[in-house]
Specification:
The chain is mainly β and about 190 residues long. It has helices at about 5-20, 45-50; strands at about 55-65, 75-80, 85-95, 105-115, 120-130, 140-145, 150-155, 160-170, 180-190. Helices cover about 10% and strands about 45% of the residues. The protein has an 8-stranded antiparallel β-barrel. The chain is globular, with a radius of gyration of 16 Å.
Length: about 190
């Protein structure tokens, strides 16, 4: 997990760039992912955040791996509104290793599906992965694409394009069964 000071600094940057307000206290530890659970029904203020030009989301907590090989994990987890810490949906990361030298993968090709109360957003981008020198068993993840990364969208997001930026930390200590995510996603629609 990120230190509280890192999260506060990131949110201050988001506030300056996108006009976000400071978040409420972060949600408690996430419960294990239950794929049979329905999409949550966020509060009206959080629902308004999900209808804007920019979505700030945190894929946080344990994510089950339903993939078939080490080179192609598929993680199923939960996603929270970064501003409020409220559970707002689920996320599926379909990850494929593209590094030519095998494991560990330093670059992965990721299709991410955000299942939100009023629609889905499917994103596709290359993500850099690097071992965290401060935390054995953890990797740092990041992507700053220059072009559009949104492949498709439904519901209130239908027809929208844009790009997604990612900055995160992933605990690989329980692989291959699951991984612990703390990935910040900024989805900026055109």
């Amino acid at each position: 997990m990120f230190r509280r000071s890192t999260v506060v600094a990131l949110l201050a940057l988001l506030a300056a760039v996108f006009g976000f307000q400071a978040p409420a206290a972060p949600a408690g530890d996430a419960k294990p992912f239950d794929p049979s659970a329905s999409t949550p029904d966020p509060s009206p203020p959080t629902l308004d955040l999900l209808r804007g030009k920019v979505l700030a989301l945190d894929a946080y907590g344990p994510s089950k791996n339903t993939g078939s090989t080490p080179y192609h994990p598929i993680f199923n987890g939960r996603v929270y509104a970064l501003e409020t810490g409220e559970l707002v949906g689920t996320v599926v990361d379909d990850v494929q290793c593209v590094t030519p030298h095998g494991l560990p993968c330093n670059v992965v090709d990721v299709h991410t599906t955000f299942n939100l109360p009023e629609g889905t957003v499917v994103n596709h981008m290359l993500v850099s992965v690097d071992p965290d020198p401060q935390r054995p068993g953890y990797v740092l993840t990041g992507a700053r694409p220059e072009g559009s990364t949104i492949e498709s969208a439904t519901g209130i997001y239908a027809g929208r394009t844009g790009r997604t930026r990612l900055s995160g930390l992933v605990n690989l200590g329980t692989m291959p069964a699951e991984a612990g995510f703390d990935d910040f996603f900024i989805i900026q629609f055109d």
